[in-house]
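Model: Ready when you are.
Researcher: Fold this.
Model:
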Amino acid sequence: MKQFMRYVLLAIVLLAPVAASEVYNKTKNSIVRISYKAKETKQPSMGRIPGLQFFFEGPDGQRMQPSATHMTEQFGTGVVVSDKGHILTNHHVIEKYEASEGDLNITIGETTYTATVVGSDAQLDIAVLKVAGAKDLKPITWGDAKKVNVGDDIYSFGNSYNHGIRFAKGIVSSEVGYIPRSAQAPYALEALPVSFAYDDGDSGGGIFDALGNLIGLNFGGVRLDNQMSGGIAYGIPAYMIQQAVNDLITHGQIKRVKLGISIQPVNERLAETLKMDTPKGVLISEAKQDSHAYKAGLREGDVIVGYNGAEVKHDQHLLSLVRQSKVGDTLKLKVLRETKELTIEMKAPEGVGDDVTISSPGQLSSFTQAGADVAGLSLASITPEVRKRFNLKSDTKGVIITEFAKQPYHKKVNIQPGDIIVSIDQTTIEKVEDVKKQIENARKAGKKSVLLFVARHASRFFEAFEIAAADKS
């Protein structure tokens, strides 16, 4: 009976709501303010000055002001990650810092120290700084964002507008998602969505669970009408960056796993053409012959559906899984190749650049040229003239799409004039007759679609091409 009561009391303690003040008191000494001066150049502005038709005159009597350089205040937040003075923050917080322009200031409590940059990484948007002379530092305790659920309480700190550290309480607002690449975020990031107002200066602040463990790092918020973030913010999950932080502290750079492949999503048309029950995994659009992935057995056209026991959901998910791997780990990839399931093992190789490249076909200028009509496509062999016009390498093989003989259907697929068909259903194409042969073979076999492997500028990707739909269009 006594043993039972001990368990009951322990359960009450563990399940009892945690006061926000307890989390604050446990973590407040692990949070720092970051500030520095950065040089910025103001672009020339133009304004109408009546009666003044000279001196920096622009079009229509507008006055052009010369560009001006001035110093601006940059600020953010950081968390203490070691008792030796290492501070974790975002790369974008310190990316404008130049040692020649002043000190990088770290304020801990009421004391300000000078810091140096140990290492920084734009892909994960993290940076590690170091302060010398600081005593009694209290490093954070790492937590796991995978163990929190939607609706769980979270707590965050931020140096809002550089007016001092602010403590906020919120919740996990949805499942971990992905921030796509954009001009503002050039690298795809896995994101932990949380609900609290995100302000300028909050980047680099810690996100803590109810036990006071670090489960994420603030890196952005969604602004509404250029005001406050409206209660929507994002954090980089701790499991994505913990090993990377150790690498930056030890090596000054991240020991990044690089497979040497390009991938693309598997949509419904591709899944049907590949004879898959449902769209899943990612399709390898390029496996460089000198890459570790190619040497291990991965090939263009393979569909990666599993990575170290995890089901691969989409391209961003695979990128996240690779980033969580360590150089030297044994990787087990489950692959579909022509409906057969294979398991390919390889040692996680180290490299530089993108971990995995996500294929993103670029746009082409209009191009038309007479060609043979095959399944509604006008095709032509690659002549010296075509090589010169599209700056193609001398060893480029395939046939070029010159125009669409039948427009409606082709507007629905990701092919366009100027694209080069490299292969059809994994069979290499070198001339127009090869295309005719593969299309005819597919018709005889009762196939509704064929798998085109297409080159567009530096990108290579697969596209499902429905024969019957093309014929009827």
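Researcher: Now this one.
Model:
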Amino acid sequence: MPRNPMLLRPGFRGVAALFCVMLTGVACAGGPAQSQTAPGSAVTEPTASVELVFWQSIMQSTSPDEFRAYLERWPDGIFADLARLRLAALSSPPPPMMPPEGEWSPYVNARFGTSLRFPANQFVAQPPPDNDDGRSFLTPDGTAGFLVFGQHDMFGQSPDVALDAALRDGEYDQVRLQRVLPGEYEFTALQGSRLLHRRVLIDRAQGLIHVFEGFYPLAREAEFAALMERIALSLEGASAPAPTIEPSPQTAFPPVPPSHPSVFQSPARDTALRRDLMDAARVPVQADLGRPLLFVVNTLRTAGDWAFLMGTPVEPDGRRFDWMRTPFARDWQADMMSDLVMVLLVRQGGQWRALEYVIGPTDVYWIDWVQTYGLPEALFYAP
């Protein structure tokens, strides 16, 4: 009858003897004679060999307790650094499982047709901004979240040029990932103690841009990185142009001014026309903000009975406007709005009034008014 081949393997009995010394402090029967000691005498352990054998026995283990036992016995051992790394990896909680498909909800922006899907049980929708260009979502503790919004593509940049501009203007500490695909770009970057993940779709045919930007603490990267990537990949743009508001056919508006440069002017300071326009523009804006204000004018142009104002609100005494004391405080704090106001004005019956206005736009909002009322773009900026 053949013998057990394990018993014939060279060195096997020596290994067994080393384990006995390590575990009991005395040599086992049948071990090498030099490992045995007389009763009451000190035991001389072959430390390096015992350590090596022990390490080989646990190196593939998934039990944190075994690596703790190694470090307790050999805190400065040959494999101590590796043991600490393995212990840290085994002691860390596994990243949470990706939410099942049934727990994901859609978000669709009616103005631009921007859409995505997100786990509604992990992110809470914040109040929409007044300009209705997107939405922000936060975790219940507010430490992570994402923004999704659309805007008009006024620069017509290719994805690679747009990516370079975004990285240049973002003041990021480190760019982790960047990639450019036809009609889109994406990057992940470190900014202070948090990571940002941005994906941008550029729809040249419709002149629109769709943006996702997620953020989360660097310390929780294992928890959020894959989740943000999946949300980002669900970002889509509408297959048809976003609807625009058409003026009521019963409403009679002044004639549309011609596009000739001679019809456009910027009313001078301290003129009656400028005062009338400022007073008319303040009426709806002050009502929405609930505070008196003045405008620092960025753009003020008129053509016939049409006028456009883009200005920055300030306090009546000239100090910086306090947005935190308005209904827009949450959007201002979340960096979801600008400090601008745009107002489209018409003169009817000899009186100027605000026909359209937007508070805190983050894109060239007036392009909607060009399309809705058939106005020349030269009313809104000086070529």
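Researcher: Key takeaway?
Model: DSSP finds ten helices and 13 strands in the chain.
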